[in-house]
Records
---
Amino acid sequence: MAQLERVPDGVDASVPSSARVYDYLLGGKDNYAVDRAVADRLLALAPDTRAVARANRAFLARAMRFLNDEGIRQFVDLGTGIPTSPSVHELAWEADPSARVVYVDNDPLVKAHNDALLATDPGVTTILADIRRPDLILADPALRATVDLSQPVAVLFLTVLHFVTDEEGAHDIVARWRGQMVPGSYVVISNMAAESDPEAVRRLHAATANTPAHSTFRPHDELARFFDGFELVEPGLVPVQRWRPDMESVPTRMVVEGGVGRTPQRVR
Ligand SMILES: C[S@@+](CC[C@H](N)C(=O)[O-])C[C@H]1O[C@@H](n2cnc3c(N)ncnc32)[C@H](O)[C@@H]1O
């Protein structure tokens, strides 16, 4: 049972947060009763939700090792989440301890944790910002001090774009970043897919209506449009368990699709 839950400044513990629901699904401790209630409802309906959250983290790790092998040493992780090991900087440092990482999240709890964890490391910074405002993020002095956008960069959108609706311009956000990425850069995207179990999706929508944890489940074709202007690397956009798997996995009723795209030579 809960020790008395301490709520940092700026954090609203009365409304579920996607970062904290996800933290609970991954077995973390940085969540409140309201987040656990949403996650428990979801787990009751689709018990493999926890498995798909873990599969998404495993996809992140495999994609990062691919990017390391491609020589990428700068990363912008949009919608970072509460720190979960291995984090993006830990994976980047497997290849090069001088790799640079910018974390971006609009949840103050994520920034508080990252600052506490990484305060002394000059190669990693965390920006409290909304990915729906890409221009503000791109102009942020902390981003500019950490990564050099005249060099290849990987921009990560891992299970975050489903918190941005079509009306809010989810596809335009990716396109805005693409316009800033020199040839040889990469984008990594994963998103809840409309091919998920419809009853679980319906109940999840009911449980999270009008909260920041509400998700847009997109059909495969709409997800593929995120990669417009990029070359999808093999095996393309697939359920995350099937992206260059390093172990056997079972399909899940909740589906997250993921892929990696490269900026072609002609795009700037
Ligand atoms: C499901 S977690 C994903 C964490 C990590 N990217 C992963 O895939 O393991 C979604 C994260 O995106 C953040 N987020 C949601 N909407 C956002 C927005 N509009 N701007 C910035 N961050 C956002 C949440 O606070 C949360 O930390």
Note: Residues 18-19, 22, 56-57, 60, 79-81, 105-107, 110, 130-132, 158-160, 163-164 surround S-adenosylmethionine (CB under 6 Å).
---
Amino acid sequence: MAEIVEKSPSQRPPIEWSTAIMFVLTTLAAITLVPWYGLVEGYSTTAWVTALVLWIYCGTAIGSGYHRLWSHRTYKAHWALRVFYALGGALALQNSALNWCARHRVHHRHVDIEDKDPHSIKLGFWHAHMGWMLRDHECARANYGNVPDLKNDPIVMWQHRNYWSLTWFMNLGVPAIIGWIAGDLWGVILLGGVLRLVVNHQVTFFINSLAHMWGKQPYSDESTARDNWFLAMITFGEGYHNFHHTFQADYRNGVRWWQIDWNKWFLNGVRLVGLGWDFKKTPRFRVLRAKLAMDFINARKRLTEEATDASWKETLDREYQQFLETVKAFQELQKGRVQSARQSLRERWEANSLRTRMKELEYSLKMQRKRVSLLTAALSTG
Ligand SMILES: [Zn+2]
Ligand SMILES: [Zn+2]
């Protein structure tokens, strides 16, 4: 029988006191000072508006900047936008971009592996949420070998060198200046500084904890990452975590136009005004293929659970065969497209007919998804 080895307190990595004290003090202030001041003095409209604007700023700097630009390089950005992200990242108090991205790339590479993923969900909700930051775990130490590209970004390095002064300025200086001008110094510091910081911390940490536990897996079940629209709503779009772990090079996390992904919309705006370019998108066919592969996995599970008659299995196998053929046909077409990249008239015509054929194959996958979902529904009722 396998023995569960519980680590004794002396074997655990040492506590990160400065991080722990920062979390305790900010959280305590948010749950005591903030309501107390509200009851005794009341908050001005400026204080509320500042908190909201700075919260959105933090979420955008982390989501569009730290995450989609610097960690995953899903687009290229003008220096002014990178400065905007560097300041917003300091405001979010989530470490310098260099440290954040070095760890985040390891999370993707070794997701779910207990002693390699910096915040593996396999060690429980608390560890993935905040516990991993409170002790000096070896796998959570930033390895700058992972971020050679970022070391060449002067704005990232400027932020890294001046991280603490920027953090104090953004978290205390900016709210204090706004509060002083508006005549509500403490109100703006408490709502726009403290409460906004704590709320932003907690919702960001949900991505490492809840988004690996709670939600659907429409694109892949190879990791614990989940898509969750509610988390997406409070994390500016980062809650579509199953899509993100499956297609990390895509600048979108909510790939469907209706999915609530604030950072995707922000980046569409960035492209429109010319502050970002070379945005990467996963081809529709690959997205459809991933979804259909998951549909087959789910249908098969249902088939064995329900032990339904053999004809269902045959139907499913036939559908699966067709799926493989469609994928193969698409891959061959793509090869052809790469070869005919030159632009004579005849080749342009060919490229166009290739495109039409690709669209047809895409459509065939879409129709097949409908059939497989009907099949799954039939299996669960019969
Ligand atoms: Zn990521
Ligand atoms: Zn993750």
Note: The longest strand covers residues 76-77.
---
Amino acid sequence: MIDTHAHLGKVIFGADPLTPEKLIAFMDTYGIEKSVILPLVNPEEEHYFYTTEQALEDCRSYPDRFIPFVNVDPRRGSNDGNYDFYPLIKEYVDQGCKGFGEILANLPAHDKRLKGIYKACGALGLPVLPDFRYATSTNGVIDQIGMPYLEEVLCEFPQTIIIGHGPSFWAEIAADVPGIQENYPKGKVEKPGRVDYLLEHYPNLWADLSAMSGYNALARDLDYAKRFLEKHYRKLLFGTDYFVGNQEPHIIDLLNNVGLSSSIKQRIFRKNAEELLKL
Ligand SMILES: [Zn+2]
């Protein structure tokens, strides 16, 4: 398996840092061969930064186990929406980074500064991973119910692959979105939501199934989850969002027991990541 969403380092005040050795022990327990390491560089999220430089260093220590992403705060440079992120991000790509994220900056998804990042990443062939939240959140990339900002981005940057992730993204698995205060809505999916529509209509939208948000979206209605996974399996990525060292990856059991064929499971657990990240 390839975990497309993991973290390392000391990011939470008072918590022990997640060392490479601890993450590898977790990976070995569950049969994960490689993990994508996502830097955290936006000041709204967590208490300490874990920079791209740290990710590159940790990945160099375990090149067979870790895959580095680059992360740059969108307010760097001129902070006016005109900054050219391409040279900065390319320098990290030249050092081995395979994707961009995760973005937790508390800006609207269609903010001009974020668009500068989507543009550079499209030109560099890097997928971009934002953590989507609704407008009331004080961290994470903001969208409205129905994800109009995300759709604007998908239209404007067809070369840029966006990996959907986070509570507001996955709340939209159902058409009936209960409201912006409910991060993990429960109940049957009576009618497919905007996630289904956008995955169907935009080749540049993918999604990762990590964290409580991805798990909850599937676990709330397993019959619908099976249909959803069978419809979109070519653009779905297994992930855990492991970052504090005590999470159980319930998503593994769910994917193994929901009734998928072995070839679909292979795509979600591994092959899609290999192709997307050109491993
Ligand atoms: Zn994460």
Note: The chain has eleven helices and ten strands.
---
Amino acid sequence: MMSRSKKRPRITLTQNGALKVHDLETFVDAEGRPLPVKPVTLLCRCGASRNKPYCDGTHAKIGFNGGKKPGGKPDRVVEYKGKEITIGDNRAVCSRDGSCYRGSPTVFIPSKFKWIKPDAAPKEEIIRTVRQCPSGSLSYRIGGVWYKDWDSEPMIKVAKNGPLEVKGFIELEDDMGSRPESAEHYTLCRCGGSKNMPFCDASHKTNGFEDES
Ligand code: FES
């Protein structure tokens, strides 16, 4: 666990500016290699920096608007009830990293209308898989208790051509008042195209966003 003497990292952002990450120690690339951080590290979320994942001020030149946009998916949890476990899913914050259908391909079937089958695999497998979801879009309920926050050390990972994957209860202070689905883990847009800013909504999959400028 984090020592009490250390400051807990936090993220602050304003609607049209960079992400400001305070007191972060663990910042890694998609392969887990450490990336440099400062006491306050500015990260790009407009998608246009030439120094990704860091901010180089381009958002001001291009008139970046980081507000929510019309046409996004409903920001609510849909419940898929099974005999032993209920799976919750919020499509508005899914980053489509694919860990669900790789982990439990009989349960998570993206091509189906009712795409989650909570009785199609043992409960233990489903729990393992849900806990791999980086965005917090997936959660589960057993009996009357919802589970959506896990136990992990604070860190941010830069997904390849995708969002920032935040873990470990890093507080998000957003002047639009957004709250992550899980306070413990969530994914933040860095392509500039999400309709549900500041969260990733998987728009990077279709708008051609790439890390290389
Ligand atoms: S990085 Fe996923 S929508 Fe922007």
Note: The first strand starts at residue 10 and ends at 13.
